[in-house]
Amino acid sequence: MKTLVLGNGGREHALLTALSRDPQVSALHAAPGNAGMADLATLHAVEATDPAAVVELARELGADLVVVGPEAPLAAGVSDALREAGFAVFGPSQAAAQLEASKAFAKEVMAAAGVPTAGSRVCTTAAEAAAALDEFGAPHVVKDDGLAAGKGVVVTSDRAEALAHAEACFAVGGTVVVEDFLDGPEVSLFVICDGEDAVALTPAQDFKRIHDGDAGPNTGGMGAYTPLPWLPEGFTDEVMDRVARPVLAEMARRGTPFTGVLFCGLAVTAKGVEVIEFNVRFGDPETQAVLARLETPLGGLLADAAAGRLGADRRLEWSDDVAVDVVMASAGYPASSSRGDVITGLADAAALEGVHVIHAGTAAQGEDVVTAGGRVLAVVGRGADLAQARERAYAGVERIRFDGAQWRTDIGLKAERGEITVPGTEGAK
């Protein structure tokens, strides 16, 4: 099965790494790819958001399956163009991708499907935003309605800061969604969908803030771990029954069936599971940890989803270990990024037991690998328990050097210490 993966980030490198373990996959290609992917796939200098160019590449390769990694190509209609040209595609249509491209649309779908989520108001003026902030109170949650690469959300107790974020969105012609704040720990759950049936991957937790202790501004994500020992029994089944399947049914009812991965961003609150947001692609950095534990061949799974043959009783196989990934970011991130800094120690890190390195913002410069973005690498550690997985991940991080490198030191630490509690769950750890 010749497989083409679109994108150039950590998520796509993680997908390629998992696909390379699938005996059904005969050849791997990536467009445009990054420096770390060259050992796994043939790279093609094609813009992933250009539908005509992607279709032409798929024809040249004779691709049996195209996996759309990032959100931008989905919003640009690349999956539609590929399907019209006769290719099997893992990724939703442009219409179905509105679940991520418009938070207001997602709220509308959830309301129609009876999915639990935070109360919200769609605002187009500063006056409307101010009224909504006062209605819901602090902490304030303000979301850019469109795509923002995971950084369009402000959560703050400072009303002026919240209003300023809304006004910045209005200034460039955008709208915002102001929401009620959801208490409780957050969980990411990827659901593989074929338009009718679905199967969940293992839940993960990511870390959005740049600094330890969830301090500093939001980022695209600074690390993740899976599985989550503190989740209540039956959590995934509850999400499938109350969230994923109702949304799938509603999207099908609207004539826009959802094929691809529905990324459910969830809060485990005192009232139960509630949806924070949806994405329509694998999340980064959760994918790096989740796919490290997947033993079911990924290529066959995604091909079945693309062809509408998942079936209602699909089951996946997982390793018994724990996976933790720690993101190493460049100087200045998330406000800016430093490019061209030489990275050393990659082979030393990858040689450690239970460690592998996923590239995100990297590029080849002669014989060197250099930084080429905000989030540069994710170092994945696997171990028998969370403590060992964390120890291995951070041992890998310590082997890698580039100027201005920054990372969090507390990925998975609270869970390791048993300090995460689920509201309303007696004796939760």
Point out poorly predicted stretches. Answer: none
What is the share of helical residues?
25-40%
User: How big is the Rg?
Assistant: 21 Å
- CATH class annotation of the largest domain: Alpha Beta
Quote the beta fraction: 25-35%
Which structural category do the helix and sheet elements fall into?
alpha+beta
> Might you state the CATH topology name of the largest domain?
D-amino Acid Aminotransferase, Chain A, domain 1
**Amino-to-carboxy terminus distance:** 44 Å
Mean pLDDT: 94
Number of strands: 23
Total count of domains: 3
Describe the structure.
With 429 residues, this protein is an alpha+beta fold. The chain has 3 domains: 2-91, 3-Layer(aba) Sandwich (Rossmann fold); 120-179, 2-Layer Sandwich (Dna Ligase, domain 1), CATH 3.30.1490; 186-416, D-amino Acid Aminotransferase, Chain A, domain 1. The chain is built from 14 helices and 23 strands. It has helices at residues 10-19, 51-61, 71-75, 78-84, 98-101, 103-113, 126-136, 159-171, 235-253, 286-293, 298-306, 346-350, 386-399, 413-416; strands at 2-7, 27-32, 42-43, 65-68, 89-90, 120-123, 140-144, 153-156, 176-179, 186-194, 198-200, 205-206, 209-211, 215-218, 223-226, 259-269, 272-279, 322-329, 342-343, 355-359, 362-365, 368-371, 375-383. The strands form 6 sheets. It has a 5-stranded parallel sheet with strand order 3-2-1-4-5, sandwiched between helices. The protein has a 5-stranded antiparallel sheet with strand order 12-15-18-23-20. A 4-stranded antiparallel sheet has the order 6-9-7-8, sandwiched between helices. Helix 6 (103-113) crosses helix 9. The longest helix has 19 residues, at 235-253. The chain is globular and about 55 Å long. The mean pLDDT is 94.
